Amino acid sequence: MSGRSLTQARWQLQPRHVGAPLAVRYWLKDRMSLTAKLKQHCTQFRVQCLHQRQQLCLADEYAAVGLARRLRVYERDVLLRCQEQAVVFAHTIVPLQASVADWPFFNALGERSLGTTLFGDPQVQRGALHFARLPQQHPLVRRASLTTGEALPVPVFARRCLFKRKSGLLLVTELFLPAIYTLRPSAPRAASAYSGFVQPSLNLQSQ
């Protein structure tokens, strides 16, 4: 197996193409806000911001945000917690050339949910979901393991989505941690404004 295959993901348009079982697809393929979906499955939800900084983007994500090579980007990593259990590791990048007018809320998020902000903004266009199974050596799996303090069973299933607002692009990658598969709905699923929010797909190329 090549070094590239160990550290880069092959992003697919269908969750079945990454071998995701049905229990995993329940989380992967839903286009509603992940924050809203998690709140349906737990009574205590919170965002733990790990860092927000400038950082060199990953080798398998620079092309998705229109960069010609690996460059520094604004990066935000968080854990989404239900009943204090870490259930999702979320990683967001924004190219440095994006303006404050493109993403006026990004630098002031703190421990607020990015997803709630994105889905609540009518100027935000959402691209197609892409899916991957990440190996243990993938940088985001290694970060998630270090943050949670435990080795994650592999493969780790993940999805990512490209968002556009004005001229700015933003890429969100979500890794689903083992604890998420133990969650059960805390109430019958209600109709949500999020579930009907489908903007025209952006052209996010598989890699």
Radius of gyration: 16 Å
Which sheet architecture does the biggest sheet show? Answer: 7 strands, antiparallel
Q: What count of helical segments does DSSP give?
A: 5
State the distance separating the first and last CA atoms.
17 Å
Uncertain segments are 188-207
**Main structural class:** alpha+beta
Number of strands: 7
The outline comes out as globular
Mean pLDDT: 87
H/E topology pattern: HHHEEEHEEHEE
Helix content: 10-25%
Residues in β-strands, percent: 25-35%
Describe the protein in words.
β6 and β7 form a beta hairpin. The longest helix is centred in the last third of the chain and has 10 residues. The C terminus is likely disordered. With 207 residues, this protein is of the alpha+beta class. The two termini are 17 Å apart. Strands 1, 2, 3, 4, 5, 6 and 7 form a 7-stranded antiparallel beta sheet that branches. It is globular and about 40 Å long. It is built from 5 helices and 7 strands.
In brief, what are we looking at here?
The chain has helices at about 5, 20-30, 35-40, 115-120, 140-150, and strands at about 45-55, 70-80, 85-95, 125, 130-135, 155-165, 170-175.
Features:
single chain; 207 residues; alpha+beta; 7 strands; globular; disordered C terminus
Topology:
Layout: H1 3-7, H2 22-28, H3 34-39, E1 45-56, E2 72-82, E3 85-95, H4 114-119, E4 124-126, E5 130-134, H5 139-148, E6 156-165, E7 168-176
Antiparallel strand pairs: 1-2, 2-3, 3-7, 4-6, 5-6, 6-7
